Description:
Layout: H1 37-46, H2 51-69, H3 75-94, H4 101-118, H5 133-151, H6 155-173
Helix pairs in contact: 2-3, 2-5, 3-4, 3-5, 3-6, 4-5
Amino acid sequence: xxxxxxxxxxxxxxxxxxxxxxxxxxxxxxxxxxxxxxxxxxxxxxxxxxxxxxxxxxxxxxxxxxxxxxxxxxxxxxxxxxxxxxxxxxxxxxxxxxxxxxxxxxxxxxxxxxxxxxxxxxxxxxxxxxxxxxxxxxxxxxxxxxxxxxxxxxxxxxxxxxxxxxxxxxxxxx
Length: 174
């Protein structure tokens, strides 16, 4: 038996520049259906919140603050700000993003003052008024701090904080 070794011709040899590599899969191309459900859930809840989700939470609060600046805030605007501050306080309680508690307590006191001034003595009617500049500034700062909290949160942590905020609210309501 004879072995004939033939050398490749120059045309069939490719330089490293000519070699095309297969594109590496990007996270958007990864097929998550092959993962076990527990892995998929872990990936989903450990991911940071996208900017769109952060904005979906904060835009209503910023609109409510703008209505307060204009003196046209309704009780729904106040409730939107109070809900955002409840969520921010729950994130602080869980300990995910710490050190903002005093600012959030000031914002809660400001919201209570605004509610007391805007409602009648029996609490049946809402009368919008212009909050003072320091009240608006403390609420604006609290919303900015809440944005910082949300940007450093994962989906799972947000879910846990929402549950804590809801349980805190229902404890107060009952």
